[in-house]
Amino acid sequence: MTNWLEETPMPAAANRYESLIDVIHRRRSVRRFEPGQSVSRELLLQIAEAARWAPTGANSQCFDLLVVDDPAVREQVLEIFLRQSNRLIDHVKGFPAVKKDYMANTVAILIVLADARWKQAFPVATSPEWAEEYRANNERILVASIGAVVQNIQLAVTAVGLTSAWLSGGGEDTTNRELAALLGYPDCMRAIGTVPIGVPEKDLASRYRRPLAQMVHWNRYQPEKFRPDAMVDYYVKNVRQFAMYRGVEDPNQWQDAEKRLGRWREAFTGEAVTTGHGKD
Questions:
Q1: Nearest-CA neighbor of 150 among 133, 171, 136?
Q2: 100 closest CA partner among 40, 175, 154
Q3: Domain at 27-198: CATH code
Q4: Which regions of the chain are under pLDDT 50?
Q5: What is the pLDDT of residues 167-190, one digit of tens each?
Q6: Residue 276 pLDDT
Q7: For a tag site, which of 175, 202, 227, 272 has the least CB within 10 Å?
């Protein structure tokens, strides 16, 4: 079998990959911005251009991008997300919610509006017995499309030297209603992706990532890499709050790794999930 890359050396392609993976590695979800900063609309349009080229189902381009750069409007959006954060604290106990005060220091807030009308551009069943299957999958196509838009935005934000976070809270019914009332978008749209952007307050550290060898399967699913329910439960109860916010890619380097990861330490950090059997 011919190895295309070996047979066709492409230094330019290799350089493009290195540039891309560097931006990907530097992308962070950051919630500490320098206050008093601003950027031009020209720069914000550069970020919007990256969003415009995101892949979407059936090339439907099933979104609009609402850019909040007016400080007065930003303060009103902030108030909505402060209420959203309080609801998490009061009614979603156990989730490591973060206060949204940092949004006061954004240079802009980008809100990705999913337009549900475009689901009709996706595969729609003409046989009644298949209607629910395709309806449900079209919901997934819409959400996946918005995810691609948000990713493009975050990578572009990183490439221009800014930083961002991804807030899913705008998609909640209550928060979405409040945002729609403030910003005037129609009922068929929903703020699935909200991306506050700003100037990073400090150098950005990495976050926990699974080993590459553990998540890649060649030609067939490898069952030794399956993460059992007990491991998922352990992550939610004991690891999540640290994995979300600690600035270290390899949790083996956590000073309290043994305590935090427990019997699942090797499973979280090794090539296969073959440990952790037994009682918590």
A1: 171
A2: 175
A3: 3.40.109.10
A4: 276-280
A5: 877 889 999 999 999 999 999 999
A6: 47
A7: 202
pLDDT at 171: 85
Write out the residue limits of the CATH 3.40.109.10 domain(s) in the chain: 27-198
pLDDT for the residue numbered 4: 54
- DSSP for 77-132, please give it: HHHHHHHHHHHHHHHSTTS----SGGGGG-SEEEEEEEEGGGGGGS---SSGGGHH
Would you list the DSSP string of 17-82? HHHHHHHHHH--B---B-TT----HHHHHHHHHHHHTS--GGG---EEEEEE--HHHHHHHHHHHH
Closest CA to 188 of 120, 113, 109: 113
Kindly give, in sequence order, each residue whose CB lies less than 8 Å from that of residue 131, ignoring residues fewer than 6 positions away. 125
Written as one letter, the residue type at 273 is: V
